[in-house]
Amino acid sequence: MNGIEWFAAALGVINVALVVRRNVWNYPFALAMVSLYFFVFLEAKLYSDMLLQIFFFVVNLYGWWNWVQAKKAAGNVPVALLSNRERLIWAGATLAASIVWGLFMARFTDAAAPLIDAGIAGGSIAAQILMARRMIENWVLWIAVDIVAVWLYASRGLSWTSGLYALFLILSIAGLVDWRRALRAQAA
Q: What is residue 45's predicted lDDT score, i.e. its pLDDT?
C-alpha cells in the first residue's frame, strides 16, 4: 500500500496548502486524496478513519459548492468565527460523538486503536464541516487532530501518512494565522 499511501499523502499536501490560501481548487485534490485513503485505512484496520473518508468525500463536495458561492458573492473566500456558545456546542457534541463511536468500535470490531481513532474521526468531522462553512475554528481542531494522528499513524506503520499529518500540523498553524489575518482584513 506504500505507493497508494504516498500518492494520497502528496495529494493531501497540495490540498491543505490550497486550503490555507483559501483557494477553491483545493477540493479536487481533496476528493482524490480521500478516495485513496479509504483503501489505505481499510488495510491498516483503522475503520473509523476508513469510514471517515466517505464522509469527507461528501463534505468536500458541499465545501466546494459553498466556497464557490461565497467567492461569487464576495470576490474572495470570506472567513468567520463561531460564537462562544457555538464553540461549546461543537466541542461537547464532538467529544460525545467520539466517545460513543470509539466504544462502539471497541466492542464490535477488531479496530487497532478504537478510542484514539474515533477521536481523530470525530475531530476531523467537526473540523471538516467548520472548514466547509469557512469558520476559523476548523484550524484549532485540525491542530489537535494532527498532533494525535502523527503518533497513531506512526504506531501503525503508516510512515507516509504520519509524515503527512506532521506537515498538516505545520500547515494548520499557518492556516490559523492566515485566516485570522483575513478576518482582520475583512473587518477593516
A: 84
H or E segment and range at residue 101:
helix 84-108
Instruction: Give the predicted TM-score (pTM) of the model.
Output: 0.87
Is 178 within 8 Å of 20 (Cβ atoms)? yes
Q: What is the Cα–Cα distance from 9 to 28, expressed in whole angstroms?
A: 14
- Count CB atoms within 10 A of the CB of residue 43: 12
Cell of 44: 491498516
Q: What is the predicted pLDDT for the residue at 30?
A: 96
Taking the CA atoms of residue 155, residue 157, residue 159 and residue 162 in that order, the dihedral angle to the nearest 10 degrees is -40
Asked if residues 162 and 7 have their Cβ atoms less than 8 Å apart, the reply is: no
C-alpha cell at 30: 481533496
Instruction: Give tens-digit pLDDT for 12-49.
Output: 999 989 988 999 999 999 999 999 999 998 998 888 78
Say if residues 138 and 130 touch (Cβ distance below 8 Å).
yes
Instruction: Give me the DSSP letters along 40-95.
Output: HHHHTT-HHHHHHHHHHHHHHHHHHHHHHHHHHHHSS---B---HHHHHHHHHHHH
Could you tell me the three cell numbers for 7? Answer: 500518492
d(CA 129, CA 19): 13
Burial of 137 (0-12, 13-18, 19+ CB in 10 A): buried
Mean pLDDT of all residues belonging to the chain: 92
